[in-house]
Design a protein that fits this description.
The protein has 441 residues and is mainly α. 37% of the residues are buried. It is globular. It starts with 5 loop residues before the first helix and ends with a strand.
Length: 441
């Protein structure tokens, strides 16, 4: 729920502003954990921790990460790294804090304190300001509707000239009333308010873009491996006989390395020392190799080194996601694109843990689970390496228009420095009398 709520949270942020959505999400996030302290049965935790806390976390997490890319242009990757690195800070501090709170106050008192702490999300949500790009996007839509009203008024007048006078007067009277109502709504900023239809929540047309589809597949496979490690690694440490204290230490090492690596990778991308795609491939390759060889090492020193590598390489791929997406789609589509990507990642996050557990049950060790997770990262690597084939042969690919009108050729702010043109794709719509290309992406 935490990840799959991304499309809904991002779309609601366009309709009701990022501030309100993150505020509401933070409220649910805290209430879900706080209420769990009073649940007498484990089954009720599916409602509080699973549903309420999960949806609240999703409504706060995805919009809060998306809005950073609107605020920054030159240092976008570094800003995203700073934003994401706070998750590493939580991974570093929370295992230790949870252990302390449970020992001091018991599980009920710990849940109450953690729930109250999460409510601080609402305080920081009040600092969010709606991005100007989204405001301008819907202002343009409103202006277009007003122009259509004027055009349709002329059409009504011409058509009513052919009917009798009484019918004409009634038609014009009704239309004028509608026109005045629409104009009044536009003054109150209610004209053409964004809708919450299924198609607006999930902009699946973005999958027509082969690069977006390619990165969605790669990120889903890598998320499968990354989240699965947090199931396999603690159980593997205990199976080796190192104890629960070593598990906390390993997770803390992962969190600490995430803080450093996410900031470092964001800084490297902004300096343009290495391309985003090459850096992404580097994280995939190192993650795959380290995950597949860790079963050969039994001492805790090697496991601790691997825990640090998990924080550095697979843990940093999320920092690059907004930058990668903006190489595929314009900035105005980032909210829907980021949300749709989060929905894809949720499939990997949901499936990885039970599959890793099933493999362990079948083999009796976690070695095969680690190798399977490493294989998923290898799959992500291969998908990115095959980008030219994806662009050429993607089955949902829309044929580019050869003679695109210059007014549709826009240079997005994130691609101006590299000089890469934001190419538009169009669907060929065949009618009985004409053929026309309509821009859909």
């Amino acid at each position: 729920m935490h990840v799959s709520s991304g499309p809904i949270g991002n779309r609601l942020s366009e309709v009701f502003t990022f501030r309100k959505v993150v505020l509401f999400g933070g409220l649910l996030h805290g209430i879900g954990v706080f209420a769990s302290a009073f649940m007498p049965f484990m089954e009720l935790h599916y409602l509080t921790i699973g549903l309420i806390n999960g949806v609240g976390g999703g409504l706060a997490f995805s919009p809060a990460n998306t809005i950073v890319s609107f605020y920054f242009e030159k240092r976008r990757a570094l800003a995203s790294g700073i934003m994401i690195s706070t998750g590493g800070l939580g991974s570093f501090l929370f295992p230790i804090a949870y252990r302390f709170l449970i020992d001091m106050y018991g599980i009920q008192g710990a849940l109450m304190i953690i729930g109250g702490f999460l409510l601080n999300t609402c305080v920081f949500a009040m600092l969010l300001k709606q991005p100007s790009q989204i405001v301008q996007k819907f202002k343009k839509a409103n202006n277009g509707d007003i122009d259509n009203i004027k055009t349709n008024t002329d059409g009504v007048v011409q058509k009513t000239a052919e009917i009798d006078k009484e019918s004409e007067e009634n038609t014009l009277l009704q239309y004028n009333e509608r026109q005045l109502e629409m104009k009044g709504d536009s003054k109150n900023k209610k004209l053409n308010r964004p809708t919450l239809s299924l198609s607006s929540l999930f902009n699946f047309s973005l999958f027509r873009n082969p690069k977006f589809a390619m990165y969605a597949i790669a990120y889903t496979a890598n998320t499968f491996a990354y989240i699965g490690v947090f199931t396999a690694l603690p159980a593997h440490i205990i199976a080796l006989g190192h104890g629960k204290g070593k598990v906390v230490m390993a997770l803390s090492i992962t969190g600490a390395m995430e803080i450093i690596s996410k900031l470092f990778f964001g800084w490297i991308v902004d300096l343009k020392i290495i391309g985003v795609k090459k850096l992404l491939l580097l994280t995939f390759v190192v993650s795959a190799i380290s995950t597949m060889v860790i079963p050969f090492f039994k001492d805790f020193t090697a496991v601790a080194v691997y825990a640090g590598m998990v924080g550095v390489f697979p843990g940093s791929y999320f920092t690059l996601m907004a930058v990668v997406l903006l190489q595929c789609i314009p900035l105005t589509d980032l909210t829907s694109g980021f949300g749709l990507m989060m929905l894809c990642l949720s499939f990997g996050a949901v499936l990885c843990q039970p599959i890793a557990g099933w493999i362990e049950d079948a083999t009796g060790t976690w070695d095969a689970s680690f190798r399977f997770l490493g294989g998923m990262t290898c799959l992500a690597t291969v998908v990115v390496l095959l980008e030219p084939l994806f662009v050429k042969h993607w089955f949902l690919r829309v044929k580019p228009t050869e003679d695109v009108n210059t007014k549709h050729q826009e240079m997005t702010s994130d691609l101006k420095e590299s000089g890469t043109l934001d190419r538009r794709y169009s669907l060929e719509v065949v009618s009985q009398t004409e053929k026309d290309y309509n821009t859909v992406l």
